[in-house]
Every structure is written in C-alpha cells, then in structure tokens.
Automatic annotation (TrEMBL):
Residues 27-174 form the PapC N-terminal domain. This is Fimbrial assembly protein. It is found in: Cell outer membrane. Residues 1-25 form the signal peptide. It comes from Acinetobacter guerrae. InterPro entries: Fimb_usher, FimD_plug_dom, PapC-like_C, PapC-like_C_sf, PapC_N, PapC_N_sf. Keywords: Cell outer membrane, Membrane, Signal, Transmembrane, Transmembrane beta strand, Transport. Residues 758-812 form the PapC-like C-terminal domain. GO terms for biological process: pilus assembly. Belongs to the fimbrial export usher family. It comes from the Bacteria. It is a multi-pass membrane protein.
Length: 849
C-alpha cells in the first residue's frame, strides 16, 4: 500500500528532517511517494553515511571536543577514479598542523595530499573525521597516544591569538555640582582612561587623566584644571619564554624592592601564560562614604581605579593582582571634603615551582612627575627559582653609577605550617658629599588553616637601618638635595576567619620612620546573616567595620559603622546604618535608613540620614543613587539635599570605543585590556551573554575584560532572540594574548519564512530532495513533491540557488515584497542565465494534491 501525503505535509516533514538530520545513512522507499515523475527524485545527500556535497564550507573545527579557534575554510573534494562513487576527502589546511595538538611522534606520521594542499592524517591509527552540516562543524577524534599534554583549564600557546589590528579608547568620567546655601557653588569633573592601538603582536598604550574644579563665591571664581598622560608605552607577549616585553614609560612593580617608575625597556615573566596553579594576591579597599562619593586609588601618580559609591560602607575587591607597593586612596565627598589613607600591598612569601624561573628585568632612567627623568640609567632585575618542592631562592639588584642595591632571600614551604620567606637587602648610595651604606631585612609568612577555616593572607615584618636607601629615596635626595624620611620598621598582617554564618577580616599596619613620627592603620570587618521570622525568604545581613588611621601629625581618624540589611523581595531591601567617626579630635554621629533594589541591569537606592556631633551643625539629609548597565556603558546618577547646607547632583559613566577593519562599536570599558569583538553579519540588536550587551546597527558588539591567555567563551542569548532570528552558531571561544582585540563571527539567520512552489524553465519542477541555498552556500530549504518547498531565513530580492546532482542547476530570485506564510509563491528557477524575479501568489486554501 502506498502512503499518499499532502504536498504541504511532505514539505513540512522535509523541513523537519533538514533541521534535525544526522550523518547516518538512510535508505528511502521511494514507492511511498505519490509522484507522477518518480525518477525526478534526488535523495543522494541523505542516502550515504556522512555524505556532504562537495564544495567550500566555513566550519568550526573540534579536536577531541575542544574547539580550535575561529571557523576556517574547509573544502570537501570528490575523489575520482575510485570504485566508491561517493568517495570524498575532507581537505584540512596545512596551517592547522601546529594547532591540532599532535605530539612529536604524531607529527612525523602526517603527510600531505592533493598536490600538497591538504593534510593526510590517515597514518594515525584510530583517527576519525566527520563533518556535521547542521552545526557547521568538523569533528576530529584523535587517540590520546598521538596528542600532546592538554589541560582542560589551559590552552597551549599554539592556539593563542593576537587578535585583529585596531584602536580604542576606554574611559571613565565623573561629574558633580554642589550648590551651598552661602552662595558657594562647586563644580568637579574628572576623567581617566587608556587609549590604545594594536598592530600585529604589539600593543601601544597611553594612560591619561584630567581634573577640572571650579569654585564660585560672591565676587570671585577659582578654577583648577589639569590634563596629562601618565605614561606612553608599548608591549608584546613573548609566548616561547612566557614573558612580556615592554618599551616606553612604565611602572616596575617589584616583589623584592620598592616599586618605581622608569622610561626604558623591561622583560617580565608572566605566570598567566602557564597552566593555572597559583592564585595572584590583590589588596582590597575598605571604607565608609558619608555621601555619594568618588573613590580614587593611585599607585604613585597613576590612577588605577576610580569609582562612585553611594553612602555607607564600601568594599572594593577589583584591583589588579599585579599592582605592588603603596596605594593612596582618596574618598571625595559631595561637599568637596576629602579623606585620604594609604595601604601597603603585601607580597606573599616567595615560592616558585621546582625548576621554574620567574624574573623581571628593566633598564632605563627613573621617572617622576609623569615624564621627567633624573639621574643615570638604572639596570634592575629580580628573580625567583624553585630549588625543590620545599625551597625557593630569590633575589635581585638595582645598579647605576651612583647607586647599587643587592638583595638575596630564601623561601620555604612549611607545608601544614604555611610558607615563610626571609630576605636581606644591602644598598650603597653615593652622593656628592657622602657615601651611605645600609641594610634592610624582611620576613613574610602566609598560611591557610583549612581545619580552622582561617587564612593568614599575609603577615610580615621589615626593618631598615638609618642609612638604607631605596632607589626612589636615593633619586629624590640626589635630585633635590633634601633627605627623605626613610622607613625604619613596618609590621603588616591580613587575617581572614570563616565561620558557618560569620566572616571576620582584620588588617593591621604599623610603620615607624627615622625622621618622622610613626603611623598606624588597622581595620576590622565582620559580617553575618540570619533568617527573619515571617519576612522574605532571603536572609538578612549585618556587618560591622572599624578603621583607624594615626597620622604622622599625631591625629587619629576613627570610624565605626554598623550596617543592617533587611531583604524584602525581588532584589529589594531596607538598610539601617549607624556611623561613628572621629576626625581631628571631633566626634560625629550619622544615622541613616535606606531603601534599595536591583535587577540584572539596574541598581538604585534612596537614603535619609541625620548627622550631629562636635563643632558641626546638626543636619538631616536625603540622597538617591541610580546605576544602569547598558550595552555601550555603565552609567550612574546621584543627587543629595541637606537642608540649610547644600544640594548636589552628580553622574558618572564608564565606556569605551573600539575601531577595527571589521567596524566600530561602543561598549562598556575594558580598562585598556583584552576585549572581544563579536559580529552577527546582517543582524542587529542580537543579545549576547546575559542579554545586556547587544550588537549595534552594523551587527557589532564588544565584550570587555576578556581574560588573557585563558579560554574565553562568548554566546548569543538565544532565549532573548527576536522571533524572526535564529542563531546558527550560538557560541564560540577564543584565547587571546594580553591586550588583544579578538574577533569572532556568530552566524544568525534573519528573515522571513514561507512556502513556495519551484518550477523550471521547461515547465517541470526541481527533483524531490533538491537543496535550496543562499549565496553563502547555506541551505534554506529542501524541495518537496511538485516543487513545494518550505524556505526559512529569506530576504526580499535575494538570489537563491538550487542544487542537485552535486552542483548548481538553476537560480531564482525572491520578489521585492514577501507576504506572510499564509500565501504560497510560485517561483521560477532559471538555468544558465539570470532573469528578473518571477513570482505569483497561490492561495494556501487551494488543493495541491
């Protein structure tokens, strides 16, 4: 018995098989088809296992499940003069040999074929290659015996990409305006960021910052403004030696000596190029803002972070782990009042993997006031070498004609008792009237007590005698003739304790000086959470922070803040805050209550407070803060009102613009570092990742803050795609070198869907099973009986080709206006020459049996 199918039903079944087809061979019983011309059927592409029509394809290659970078041109070649008429060759380009990941013995067995155009991997026993057209992928399975070592968390250097050439600017800007009741008006505007140009493997960078301040009083105006580039430099990643070469103005963040600025050249090993085993250390910034405040963190004269925070306690944990030395923190309140404090970044005990050498080398002149240089050129270097699993040797030296320092140290892994290091440094400073020799001693310790759930992140002690000079101290004294106050002793400890529902952090620093008074800084941070009976399912939290900074003038700045958060629902909460502060001997108290809410893109809060204390007028206040994550920027606005005191408004933006040969896209700031440009050709407003980032009108978007030397994955958010768009390639991955501008194209099919009846110029129809493709060789439909075809992803006036017998047989053109799928188009497929579009509408209610 023959099964007679309605032609529309046949087309739908064929469309379904097209979208879900596999590579298994399928044997068709053509007798079930009620076709008048049963010979006019072409099912060849379904009847042979793994058969792919010969031609050129853009395929993503996978080796043992691991993606090998961007899609590549792969040719499918039909083999002649063989008994198997369907025999074909997957032509793997020669340049893929190095990235496949074969070991030495595997590479020796690889030859070439097709006159040296394609790799021949057949000598590797057990290898399998398979093309899957539905996913546009080439899957290669290679037995592990032929493969080099692979770490799932590390991509070997052969697969790292330098990205595309281009330029960018990343910036953040902050604005505030305060109108005081005594007619004083204050305007504050600051911006900082990085401009960069990428040429091949080289990255050229310039860090800039600018400040504008204006104060208007009765009859007088005072303005202050400044703009400068902190440094100009260029760098490149040297993969073979896992190092970064830098030329120009830079900062030498030393783990042995004090960090310093230079103009010259440096070569530094970068452990991020190695399989991840160690986690870098970075300090955190803890403080309290009384109003909508701007927090600025500087390393010497370079701004490493600037952000706006709402009233209340803040905790910043996003500093780069490579930053070393003293960090200066400024908290600028709305009324212009500034609180300043410093933190010493800690260097963990120097331990290095056995046989591994870590080094930093630099040659150049010391730099001050951004671009000025002084003294003779300096040659500086430091290293650490792993002697064994337990012992590491480290040291370094800084030399020029007038100044020499040498340091040597030993690191010891105490295993269950932690890690310890000890080093000694000797300096010789030759001034015009004297020569000074001094020594410095340093002891460092770190330990994670897993059973006690306690981390001593860093504990250290350093002593320097009176004639010891760091390089910065020597250069300053040699240039100005003024003896700087050298440090005598320094104690540091960073402690974290974790309980089941309670966390405790403690940091302490105590420094003494040979010429100045001692300074002390310490902070305590504690937090816990608990369930509120009858309240939201979310838990309430309470935190306590206490800080003290004793200045060299003998004054003490204290603050204690108690912060309680009571959750409501859907990201909403109420907060209560009690703040005590003592500045310059005056006690102040602040009580506030706030309401806040957040979602995937928005965050806002409203706070009301009351402030009173010694030598200040009691005052109430109300403030609001709102931030939003856009595809092109992170923005925030804030406003405050203090009766009989002042009113204030402010705003901030963090954004960037990247330009390449692929196009231009604005985006959230990447802080001058690695980024990935995504293109969705022919489609705009395509959501990526969490849906916040979308491609612009040119189909471009930039994902910022991509990890260097680590595999990054980018994907289309298919759950938020428009109805007329389908993601053909929804995800991709890439591994980029430091500072690269990566590029990936994610194909989407955007267009209409409709039924059409295809006819040839001889009055017949294309054979059942023929393939309809666009100019990109993408299959958009399969011909059914009597030419009935379900087409997807089509556009007006588009030219399509119809394939059967392994080649293009005819071409057709879609009309200028495509109606909805409620009607069926009659399309003429012309062979041999191009003609104008021919189409007529057939009512879908007509019988087509």
């Amino acid at each position: 018995m023959k099964l007679k199918l309605n032609k529309v039903t046949q087309a739908i079944l064929l469309a379904f098989s097209f979208s879900t087809c596999s590579t298994y061979a399928t044997e068709f019983n053509l007798n079930v088809l009620d076709a008048e011309d049963i010979e006019n059927v072409d099912m060849s592409q379904f009847s042979i296992a793994g058969y792919v029509p010969p031609g050129q394809y853009v395929l993503t290659t996978f080796v043992n499940g691991q993606r090998l970078g961007a899609p590549r041109d792969i040719s499918i070649i039909k083999l002649e003069n063989t008994e198997n008429t369907a025999a074909q060759l997957i032509c793997i380009p020669l340049d893929m040999l190095e990235i496949i990941g074969l070991n030495a013995s595997g590479k020796e067995k690889v030859t070439t074929t097709q006159q040296g155009q394609c790799l021949d991997l057949s000598a590797l026993s057990g290898i399998q290659t398979k093309v899957e057209l539905p996913t546009l992928s080439l899957n290669i399975t290679i037995p592990q015996t032929w493969m080099e070592y692979r770490d799932p968390y590390w991509i070997p250097p052969a697969l790292w990409e330098e990205g595309v050439n281009g330029g960018f600017i990343d910036y953040s800007a902050n604005f505030s305006f305060t109108d005081e009741d005594d007619s004083t008006k204050r305007t504050y505007l600051s911006t900082n960021g990085t401009v960069g140009v990428n040429l091949g493997a080289w990255r050229v960078r310039g860090d800039f910052n600018a400040i504008y301040q204006k104060r208007e009083d009765d009859g007088s105006n005072k303005e202050q403004h400044n703009f400068d580039f902190n440094r100009f430099y260029a760098f490149t990643s040297l993969k073979d030696i896992s190092s970064v070469l830098t030329v120009g103005e830079n900062y030498f963040y030393s783990d042995v000596f004090e960090s310093w600025q230079y103009s010259g050249v440096s070569l530094e090993s970068d452990d991020r190029m190695l399989p991840p085993k160690l986690v870098g250390y970075a300090p955190e910034i803890i403080g309290v803002a009384n109003t909508n405040a701007t927090v600025t963190v500087r390393s010497q004269d370079r701004i490493v972070l600037e952000t706006t925070v709402p009233p209340g306690p803040f905790r910043i944990q996003t500093l780069d782990s490579g930053v070393r030395g003293v960090l200066d923190v400024t908290v600028r309140e709305e009324n212009g009042e500034e609180k300043k404090f410093s933190i010493n970044t800690a260097s963990l005990p120097y331990l290095t993997r056995p046989g591994r050498m870590v080094y930093k080398l630099a040659a150049g002149k010391t730099r001050y006031d951004a671009h000025s240089v002084t003294g003779r050129a300096v040659l500086s270097g430091e290293f650490s070498y792993g002697l064994s699993n337990a012992w590491s040797l480290y040291g370094g030296s800084q030399l020029n004609g007038d100044y020499q320092t040498l340091a040597v140290g030993i690191g010891r892994d105490l295993f269950s008792f932690g890690a310890l290091s000890l080093d000694i440094a000797q300096s010789v400073s030759n001034f015009e009237d004297q020569t000074l020799q001094g020594r410095s001693y340093r002891l460092s310790y770190a330990k994670s007590f897993n059973d006690l759930r306690t981390d001593i992140t860093f504990a250290g002690y350093r002593f320097a005698d009176q004639e010891y000079r760091t390089l910065n101290q020597f250069m300053s004294q040699d240039r100005t003739g003024i003896e700087s106050g050298g440090q005598k002793e320094n104690y540091q400890i960073y402690l974290n304790k974790y309980f089941d529902k309670f966390n405790l952090s403690l940091n302490y620093q105590y420094s003494t000086y040979w010429q100045n008074k001692p300074q002390t800084q310490y902070g305590l941070y504690a937090s816990t959470y608990f369930k509120m009976p009858g309240a939201s399912k979310e838990k309430a939290s309470v935190s306590l922070s206490a800080t003290r900074a004793e200045r060299d003038t003998g004054l003490k700045d204290d603050s204690i803040n108690l912060y309680l958060t009571l959750p409501l629902s859907s990201g909403r909460s109420i907060s209560l805050s009690e703040l005590y502060s003592k500045t310059g001997g005056n006690n102040q108290f602040n009580h506030s209550v706030g309401y806040s809410a957040y979602n995937d893109r928005d965050n806002y809060s409203v706070n009301a407070g009351y402030n009173h204390g010694e030598n200040v007028n009691s005052q109430s206040s109300i403030s609001g803060y709102y931030s939003r994550d856009l595809s092109q920027a992170n923005i925030s606005v804030n406003a405050s009102y203090v009766p009989e005191q002042y009113s204030s408004v402010g705003a901030s933006i963090r954004s960037g613009l990247t330009v390449t040969s692929k196009g231009v896209a604005s985006h959230r700031s990447a802080n001058g570092d690695t980024r990935l440009m995504i293109e969705t050709p022919g489609a705009s407003a395509i959501p990526l990742e969490n849906g916040v980032t979308k491609t612009n009108s040119a189909g471009l978007a930039v994902l910022p803050n991509i990890s260097s030397y680590r595999q990054a994955t980018a994907s289309i958010n298919t759950s938020k795609l428009p109805d007329n768009v389908e993601a053909l390639i929804s995800t991709t991955d890439i591994t980029l070198t430091k500072g690269a501008i990566g590029y990936r194209s994610l194909s989407v099919m955007k267009g209409d869907k409709l039924f059409a009846v295809l006819s040839l110029d001889n009055g017949k129809n294309p054979p059942f099973g023929a393939s309809v493709r666009n100019t990109n060789n993408r299959e958009l439909g399969i011909v059914g009986e009597d030419g009935v075809t379900w087409l997807i992803g089509i556009a007006p006036k588009e030219k399509l080709s119809v394939y059967w017998g392994g080649k293009v047989q005819c071409e057709l053109w879609l009309p200028e206006k495509i109606e909805s799928s409620s009607s069926m188009l009659d399309l003429s497929c012309i062979s041999g020459k191009e003609t104008a579009p021919v189409a007529s509408s057939i009512s879908s209610s007509q019988s087509i049996n």
